[in-house]
Write a structure and sequence with these properties.
With about 230 residues, the protein is mainly α. The protein has 10 helices and 2 strands, in the order ααββαααααααα. A two-stranded antiparallel ribbon has the order 1-2.
Length: about 230
């Protein structure tokens, strides 16, 4: 029982370490130790993304905090917009294959928001019913709002900024009271890293408790005292 519990505990900790080896951490390791660069080509086991609630745009997810998104937009908007312009006439799938979220999370997420926005605008223009058109425009407007508020400087220079007619077309379908959740970078499920390790700690404590109870049950009884006459 003890040996099995030890092996199980080791496996739990190893799985936690693998899950915590996020793209951002991998990129930092490679920056410090270039010999580890082959790790950048490996698929991450799990990505911890941050849930952001924007009062106007709705809920969206990112590998970066709001502060990190702003810093990227301020400090590297020229670089990101140049790349977007260079790739504008090339295949979207090729772009995502070339620019990994491991190294370019801002650029990668921005391009997906742009694709989702523009695809919904196109769907709205081809919609056969008013409801379908309204739904597509609503999504397009909110995705554009996320782009304007959190990727704004890069968007301005990229050639992907909507003109006033496009924005007004989508804005007509917006309902400020209606919630919106962008699926970009949301993943299948979301677990905070602190919650993950709290669960691992509880599991280890539970294993220790089970082993303690098992040890008490199999402990031989103590010696009996002298029999009375």
């Amino acid at each position: 029982m003890k040996r099995v519990s030890i092996l199980l505990a080791v496996q739990i900790v190893v799985l936690g370490l693998c899950a915590s080896n996020t793209p951002a951490r991998t990129a930092r390791f490679v920056a410090r130790f270039p010999s580890l660069s082959p790790l950048l080509r490996e698929e991450p086991m799990y990505e911890f993304t941050i849930k952001h609630l924007d009062p106007e745009a709705g809920i969206f997810y990112s590998r970066l905090s709001l502060e990190e998104l702003e810093a990227e937009d301020i400090n590297r908007s020229d670089e990101w917009s140049r790349i977007l312009r260079e790739w504008k006439d090339r295949r979207y799938a090729d772009f995502l294959a070339h620019y990994s979220p491991l190294i370019h999370p801002f650029l990668y997420e921005m391009r997906i928001h742009i694709f989702r926005r523009d695809r919904r605008l196109e769907e709205a223009r081809q919609a056969k019913t008013d409801n379908a058109r309204h739904e597509a425009l609503f999504i397009a407007f909110r995705e554009n709002l996320i782009l304007e508020k959190h990727f704004g400087r890069a968007l301005e220079k990229s050639g992907y900024k909507w003109d006033s007619k496009q924005r007004a077309e989508a804005a007509a379908a917006n309902d400020g009271a209606r919630p919106y959740r962008s699926p970009v970078s949301a993943g299948r499920f979301q677990v905070k890293e602190t919650h993950l390790w709290a669960g691992i700690l509880l599991s280890l404590l539970a294993l220790a408790a089970v082993n303690g109870l098992a040890a008490r049950k199999v402990r031989p009884p103590g010696p009996r005292g002298p029999m009375s006459a």
